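4.2 Preliminary Data

To establish feasibility before requesting continued support, the project team ran the inverse folding procedure on a target of 525 residues. The structure was first converted into the token representation described in Section 3, and no sequence information of any kind was made available to the design step. The complete token record follows.
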């Protein structure tokens, strides 16, 4: 952990670098296994089912033989599996996951491989950043510490875009540092492509497009701005991102929180607190010492230090002006950058000490990293368990219900639709109906809610005009039901001859409600 390490070391060899990446990837796969993520329905976060269904749709479109009709295909797909947001969200995650599904098949574990690989890739990029300044051992520990953060672990077990975006943003950081060190047209093109990819994964990564220019500015290398490697970058990014942004501009504000954006003096403190909260207490003191030490040695700031500091500041600054909350998944890049900066600070602090002291520091780092990883392993909240897979398998296993319209439970619409998109994908004739859309009106975040139905008779009349074969019902206590759900509960009780229970799962200790599949049996008048 002292000084700049030679690029000719053994860790520069591709075999050593690949071994580090494989260790990180194995860590993420073991985490998914121990957390039971392979068999958990898509209930960890509200956006998770939409990301999965969007990826499955891209996979099915690629196999449809109609590559020039994406919008028409999406509309038809939505009629069957109405829970995705491709268009509001940029497309790159879905394209990557859809292509991966072509190779590995469609399923939950295949989907979880994507965030696991991206989390491991982010850790490897931290290793690459730190290695040149502090050596391969410190670099490996930095990556492992990042993966061991509880919030990083939790997002690794979800089918979410955040690790994908974090990986691409950190890739821009590494390429920007390399471009500063060795300016070249090829390097500038690589950096621009990485910037475009990051933005097309999530618009919150837009700040990375300014990173190469900001790094040159703060490094007092403004002469680089005149080189084609720099001034061509905005044109390349605009050419790639522009058509998609223009085409989907009407959807840009859809799904944003309602009301005015809360720009307040407390907002920076909220994000700073959220960022520091990502680091468990045993890590806070060493992290703070390293950051303070880095501030005390400005003469040692090079491209790595400046670039990492800029990406941390840029990511948080962009979030401050965005209508999002201080959720840990939004702060993955900033957390990774703080870890790297702290290691740089410790390296500067130990640069004037003896070899014995530096070796002792490395030994403490290794021991502390391993202890931290073991203690923090799996220390994150698990999502509630629902018998989604069992119910969906019971439905698709009965040939009587193939190709029918099915109303999914109001409280878990997305997870059920995602499960049907996977397990029932060989029978796309299923048409899933969302009661929250049919019988209620509400905003993206559940705001401005109102029920469209006021009585069981009114709901029954609608379902006679627009029949469904099955209603999947979660028998929760009445106090947990919203108005349109209470009407449905009363309707199912009032018309037992019309809605016959054909499959049921009793509640358990972790899921006290009872699940029932009701079949529609129309009565002759």
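Position-by-position output of the design step:
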């Amino acid at each position: 952990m002292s000084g700049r390490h030679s690029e000719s070391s053994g860790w520069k060899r591709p075999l050593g670098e690949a071994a580090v990446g494989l260790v990180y990837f194995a860590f993420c796969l073991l985490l998914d296994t121990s957390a039971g993520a392979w068999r958990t329905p898509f209930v960890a976060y509200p956006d998770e089912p939409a990301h999965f269904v969007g990826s499955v749709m891209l996979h099915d479109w690629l196999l449809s033989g109609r590559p020039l009709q994406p919008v028409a295909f999406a509309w038809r797909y939505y009629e069957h599996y109405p829970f995705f947001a491709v268009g509001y969200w940029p497309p790159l995650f879905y394209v990557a996951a859809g292509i991966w599904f072509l190779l590995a098949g469609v399923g939950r574990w295949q989907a979880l491989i994507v965030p696991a690989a991206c989390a491991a890739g982010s850790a490897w990029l931290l290793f690459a950043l730190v290695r040149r300044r502090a050596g391969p051992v410190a670099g490996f520990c930095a990556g492992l510490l990042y993966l061991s953060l509880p919030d990083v672990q939790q997002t690794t077990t979800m089918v979410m875009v955040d690790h994908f975006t974090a990986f691409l943003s950190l890739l821009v950081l590494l390429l920007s540092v390399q471009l500063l060190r060795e300016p070249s047209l090829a390097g500038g093109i690589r950096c621009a492509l990485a910037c475009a990819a990051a933005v097309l994964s999530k618009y919150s990564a837009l700040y990375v497009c300014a990173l190469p220019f900001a790094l040159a500015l703060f490094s007092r290398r403004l002469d680089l701005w005149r080189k084609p490697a720099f001034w061509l970058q905005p044109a390349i990014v605009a050419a790639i991102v522009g058509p998609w942004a223009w085409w989907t501009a009407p959807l840009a504000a859809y799904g944003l929180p309602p009301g005015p954006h809360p720009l307040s003096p407390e907002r920076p403190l909220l994000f700073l607190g959220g960022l520091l909260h990502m680091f468990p207490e045993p890590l806070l003191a060493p992290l703070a010492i390293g950051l303070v030490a880095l501030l005390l040695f400005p003469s040692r700031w090079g491209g790595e230090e400046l670039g990492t500091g800029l990406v941390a500041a840029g990511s948080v600054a962009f979030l401050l002006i965005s209508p999002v909350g201080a959720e840990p998944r939004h702060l993955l890049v900033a957390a990774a950058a703080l870890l790297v900066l702290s290691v740089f600070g410790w390296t500067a602090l130990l640069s004037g000490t003896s070899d014995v002291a530096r070796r002792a520091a490395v030994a403490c780092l290794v021991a502390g990293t391993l202890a931290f990883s073991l203690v923090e392993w799996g220390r994150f909240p698990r999502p509630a368990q629902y018998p989604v897979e069992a119910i969906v398998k019971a439905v698709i296993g009965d040939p009587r219900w193939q190709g029918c319209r099915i109303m999914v439970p109001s409280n878990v619409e997305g997870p059920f639709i995602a499960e049907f998109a996977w397990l029932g994908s060989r029978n796309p004739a299923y048409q899933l109906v969302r009661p929250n859309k049919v019988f209620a009106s509400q905003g993206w975040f559940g705001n401005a809610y109102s029920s469209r139905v006021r009585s069981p008779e009114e709901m029954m009349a609608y379902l006679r005009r627009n029949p469904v074969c099955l209603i999947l019902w979660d028998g929760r206590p009445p106090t947990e039901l919203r108005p349109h759900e209470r009407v449905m509960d009363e309707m199912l009780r009032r018309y037992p001859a019309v809605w016959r229970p054909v499959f049921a799962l009793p509640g358990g200790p972790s899921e006290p409600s009872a699940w029932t599949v009701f079949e529609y049996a129309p009565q002759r008048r």
